[in-house]
Design brief:
- This protein is an alpha/beta fold and 193 residues long.
- The protein has a single domain, classed as Vaccinia Virus protein VP39 (Rossmann fold), CATH 3.40.50.150.
- Helices cover 29% and strands 27% of the residues.
- It contains six helices and nine strands.
- It is globular and about 40 Å long.
Protein backbone atom coordinates (compact mmCIF):
# COMPACT_ATOMS: atom_id res chain seq x y z
CA UNK A 1 0.00 0.00 0.00
CA UNK A 2 1.28 3.43 -0.90
CA UNK A 3 0.92 6.55 1.26
CA UNK A 4 1.74 10.14 0.36
CA UNK A 5 3.01 12.92 2.58
CA UNK A 6 0.89 15.92 1.63
CA UNK A 7 2.83 18.92 2.90
CA UNK A 8 5.95 20.13 4.65
CA UNK A 9 9.59 19.07 4.36
CA UNK A 10 8.70 15.71 2.78
CA UNK A 11 5.83 16.95 0.59
CA UNK A 12 5.01 14.50 -2.21
CA UNK A 13 7.11 11.69 -0.71
CA UNK A 14 5.50 8.30 -1.26
CA UNK A 15 5.82 5.63 1.39
CA UNK A 16 5.24 1.99 0.55
CA UNK A 17 4.02 0.06 3.56
CA UNK A 18 4.20 -3.74 3.56
CA UNK A 19 0.89 -5.34 2.59
CA UNK A 20 1.01 -7.66 5.61
CA UNK A 21 0.63 -4.85 8.16
CA UNK A 22 -2.71 -5.08 10.04
CA UNK A 23 -3.79 -1.57 9.05
CA UNK A 24 -6.35 0.58 7.25
CA UNK A 25 -4.51 3.87 6.57
CA UNK A 26 -6.32 7.21 6.48
CA UNK A 27 -6.95 8.08 2.82
CA UNK A 28 -5.03 10.99 1.28
CA UNK A 29 -8.29 12.91 0.73
CA UNK A 30 -9.40 12.52 4.35
CA UNK A 31 -5.90 13.28 5.67
CA UNK A 32 -5.61 16.43 3.56
CA UNK A 33 -9.03 17.63 4.78
CA UNK A 34 -8.11 16.91 8.40
CA UNK A 35 -4.83 18.81 8.15
CA UNK A 36 -6.60 21.78 6.56
CA UNK A 37 -8.60 21.97 9.81
CA UNK A 38 -5.54 21.45 12.02
CA UNK A 39 -3.56 24.10 10.10
CA UNK A 40 -6.03 26.72 11.27
CA UNK A 41 -5.55 25.70 14.88
CA UNK A 42 -1.90 24.80 15.43
CA UNK A 43 1.63 25.85 14.63
CA UNK A 44 2.97 22.34 14.16
CA UNK A 45 6.51 23.25 15.23
CA UNK A 46 5.16 24.27 18.65
CA UNK A 47 3.01 21.26 19.57
CA UNK A 48 3.32 17.91 21.30
CA UNK A 49 1.27 15.18 19.58
CA UNK A 50 0.15 11.64 20.36
CA UNK A 51 -0.81 9.27 17.54
CA UNK A 52 -2.79 6.31 18.93
CA UNK A 53 -3.34 3.11 16.89
CA UNK A 54 -0.71 4.63 14.61
CA UNK A 55 -0.58 1.73 12.13
CA UNK A 56 1.70 2.69 9.24
CA UNK A 57 2.60 6.00 10.92
CA UNK A 58 0.75 7.93 8.20
CA UNK A 59 -0.42 10.74 10.54
CA UNK A 60 2.89 10.84 12.44
CA UNK A 61 4.92 11.36 9.23
CA UNK A 62 2.57 14.17 8.20
CA UNK A 63 2.99 15.88 11.57
CA UNK A 64 6.78 15.48 11.44
CA UNK A 65 6.94 16.73 7.86
CA UNK A 66 5.08 19.87 8.94
CA UNK A 67 7.59 20.61 11.70
CA UNK A 68 6.25 18.79 14.76
CA UNK A 69 9.31 17.63 16.73
CA UNK A 70 7.47 15.79 19.50
CA UNK A 71 5.26 12.95 18.21
CA UNK A 72 4.64 9.70 20.07
CA UNK A 73 3.23 6.95 17.83
CA UNK A 74 1.63 4.07 19.75
CA UNK A 75 0.61 0.73 18.27
CA UNK A 76 0.26 -2.82 19.59
CA UNK A 77 1.65 -4.38 16.38
CA UNK A 78 5.38 -5.06 16.49
CA UNK A 79 5.47 -4.98 12.67
CA UNK A 80 3.84 -1.53 12.59
CA UNK A 81 6.17 -0.07 15.22
CA UNK A 82 9.22 -1.53 13.42
CA UNK A 83 8.01 0.01 10.15
CA UNK A 84 7.50 3.44 11.75
CA UNK A 85 10.98 3.21 13.30
CA UNK A 86 12.47 2.32 9.90
CA UNK A 87 10.63 5.13 8.10
CA UNK A 88 11.56 7.63 10.80
CA UNK A 89 15.23 6.83 10.09
CA UNK A 90 14.73 7.04 6.31
CA UNK A 91 13.00 10.43 6.61
CA UNK A 92 15.60 11.61 9.16
CA UNK A 93 12.81 12.80 11.44
CA UNK A 94 13.78 14.04 14.86
CA UNK A 95 11.26 13.70 17.62
CA UNK A 96 9.14 10.84 16.26
CA UNK A 97 9.00 8.17 18.95
CA UNK A 98 7.32 4.83 18.11
CA UNK A 99 6.05 2.90 21.14
CA UNK A 100 5.02 -0.75 21.13
CA UNK A 101 2.06 -0.95 23.51
CA UNK A 102 -1.62 -1.63 23.85
CA UNK A 103 -3.22 1.83 23.69
CA UNK A 104 -5.20 1.48 26.95
CA UNK A 105 -2.11 0.24 28.77
CA UNK A 106 -0.06 3.14 27.39
CA UNK A 107 -2.66 5.73 28.39
CA UNK A 108 -2.98 4.31 31.90
CA UNK A 109 0.71 4.93 32.60
CA UNK A 110 1.37 8.08 30.53
CA UNK A 111 1.30 11.39 32.40
CA UNK A 112 2.18 13.77 29.57
CA UNK A 113 -0.08 16.53 28.29
CA UNK A 114 -0.62 16.94 24.55
CA UNK A 115 -1.79 19.68 22.22
CA UNK A 116 -3.11 17.08 19.76
CA UNK A 117 -4.18 13.49 20.29
CA UNK A 118 -5.18 11.56 17.18
CA UNK A 119 -6.73 8.09 17.45
CA UNK A 120 -7.64 5.76 14.60
CA UNK A 121 -8.79 2.51 16.22
CA UNK A 122 -9.85 -0.51 14.16
CA UNK A 123 -13.32 -0.11 12.67
CA UNK A 124 -14.69 -2.92 14.86
CA UNK A 125 -13.57 -1.00 17.98
CA UNK A 126 -16.41 -0.55 20.47
CA UNK A 127 -14.78 1.23 23.44
CA UNK A 128 -14.83 4.81 22.14
CA UNK A 129 -16.47 6.16 25.29
CA UNK A 130 -13.99 4.35 27.55
CA UNK A 131 -11.01 5.63 25.54
CA UNK A 132 -12.26 9.22 25.36
CA UNK A 133 -13.22 9.26 29.04
CA UNK A 134 -9.77 8.00 30.05
CA UNK A 135 -8.06 10.79 28.09
CA UNK A 136 -10.21 13.47 29.73
CA UNK A 137 -10.15 11.93 33.21
CA UNK A 138 -6.35 11.95 33.09
CA UNK A 139 -6.36 15.52 31.71
CA UNK A 140 -4.05 14.48 28.88
CA UNK A 141 -5.04 17.41 26.66
CA UNK A 142 -3.51 20.80 27.25
CA UNK A 143 -6.03 23.57 27.90
CA UNK A 144 -6.54 24.36 24.20
CA UNK A 145 -5.79 20.82 23.07
CA UNK A 146 -7.76 18.72 20.59
CA UNK A 147 -8.64 15.02 20.47
CA UNK A 148 -9.46 13.69 17.00
CA UNK A 149 -11.12 10.28 16.64
CA UNK A 150 -11.23 8.68 13.19
CA UNK A 151 -14.09 6.22 12.72
CA UNK A 152 -16.64 4.92 10.23
CA UNK A 153 -19.33 7.33 9.09
CA UNK A 154 -22.06 5.07 10.48
CA UNK A 155 -20.67 5.52 14.00
CA UNK A 156 -21.96 8.60 15.82
CA UNK A 157 -19.91 9.87 18.76
CA UNK A 158 -21.80 13.15 19.23
CA UNK A 159 -23.46 11.90 22.44
CA UNK A 160 -20.11 11.49 24.22
CA UNK A 161 -18.78 14.03 26.71
CA UNK A 162 -16.60 16.85 25.36
CA UNK A 163 -17.75 16.29 21.75
CA UNK A 164 -17.25 19.46 19.71
CA UNK A 165 -18.01 18.60 16.06
CA UNK A 166 -17.49 16.02 13.32
CA UNK A 167 -16.63 16.05 9.64
CA UNK A 168 -17.32 13.35 7.07
CA UNK A 169 -15.03 12.50 4.12
CA UNK A 170 -16.12 9.52 2.05
CA UNK A 171 -16.42 6.54 4.41
CA UNK A 172 -14.43 8.28 7.13
CA UNK A 173 -15.63 10.56 9.90
CA UNK A 174 -13.43 12.64 12.20
CA UNK A 175 -14.97 13.52 15.55
CA UNK A 176 -13.37 16.37 17.47
CA UNK A 177 -13.29 16.61 21.28
CA UNK A 178 -12.13 19.54 23.39
CA UNK A 179 -11.66 20.31 27.06
CA UNK A 180 -14.89 21.52 28.64
CA UNK A 181 -15.26 25.25 29.18
CA UNK A 182 -14.28 26.49 32.61
CA UNK A 183 -17.52 26.35 34.66
CA UNK A 184 -16.63 29.69 36.29
CA UNK A 185 -17.09 31.35 32.90
CA UNK A 186 -20.71 30.18 32.79
CA UNK A 187 -21.39 31.66 36.21
CA UNK A 188 -19.87 34.98 35.17
CA UNK A 189 -22.09 35.24 32.09
CA UNK A 190 -24.92 36.48 34.32
CA UNK A 191 -27.76 34.59 32.60
CA UNK A 192 -30.87 33.97 34.66
CA UNK A 193 -33.13 31.07 33.78
Amino acid sequence: MSLRIISGAHKGRRISAPKKLPVRPTTDMAKESLFNILNNRFYFDEIKALDLFSGTGNISYELSSRGCTDVIAVDSSKACVSFIDKMSDELSTTGLFPVLSDVHHFLSRDFNKYDLIFADPPYDFEQYDELINLIFEKKMLKEDGLLVMEHQTRSDLSHLDNFESSRKYGNVRFSFFENPENPENDEESGHDD
